[in-house]
């Protein structure tokens, strides 16, 4: 583990011992901006550029264990809103009572600089396969204890932070789902969290690999069936033409070929 500070221009240099076969995760932090993550691997010199997202929400609220209230935060510019359950905040795995700081940033996926601020869009699906991703919208959220800037979490037995994000980005060809970036593992992970698009809740994600394979097999089977139909249709037309011209029918089953070859093979 190593850390450093950038100079006034934002440039920095950090040196660590490379471990063969293992990558390293870099995290960039700056006041007023969302944390940014990059994963690098190999030895030797590496050049990395971070694009930091400005925080659009930074507010403090009271966490009260057991309460069913939610605190709503909004970003007027993007139209995004966040509902945080104030009674399910934890610190070091225990219910937390006291001040909690909520911060959020919104990624404009239509802007190249917004995509640059995101970790590479490759993630692990629920099937376990590593797949490319297409983002229709992305947000960064964080909870901290403002007194010491230590991390706060949500209790695993309750609801999470509900985010509503208007997006004009095109939907991916496959059913959209919610993905979470695990900064400890430096990987995007597909989740089974509920997702609604235009007011309609989508079913939980399925095995992407089997779904894709099934669709591919169905397409191939349909193509093979169409090719077979074309072949049979062509044979029938040829047979009819030869019959009309008084010529013998051509054997297409291979029987006559076998009759010619078998004596040769038996010698």
List the helices and strands and how they pair.
Layout: E1 24-28, E2 36-40, E3 57-63, E4 70-74, E5 81-85, E6 89-91, E7 94-95, E8 98-107, H1 112-116, E9 122-124, E10 130-132, E11 138-145, E12 150-151, E13 153-154, E14 162-164, E15 179-182, E16 187-190, E17 196-197, E18 200-201, H2 208-244, H3 255-266
Parallel strand pairs: 9-16
Antiparallel strand pairs: 1-2, 3-8, 4-5, 5-14, 6-7, 6-13, 8-11, 9-10, 11-12, 15-16, 17-18
Q: What are the salient characteristics of this protein?
A:
267 residues; 20% helix; single chain; alpha+beta; 18 strands
Would you kindly provide a written description of the structure presented here, covering whatever features stand out?
- By secondary structure, the chain is an alpha+beta fold.
- The chain is 20% helix and 28% strand.
- The protein contains three helices and 18 strands.
- The strands form six sheets. It has a four-stranded antiparallel beta sheet, with no helix packed on it. The chain has a four-stranded mixed beta sheet with strand order 10-9-16-15, with no helix packed on it. It has a three-stranded antiparallel beta sheet with strand order 4-5-14, with no helix packed on it.
- Strand 11 and strand 12 (150-151) form a beta hairpin.
- The radius of gyration is 30 Å and the shape is elongated.
- The N and C termini lie far apart (77 Å).
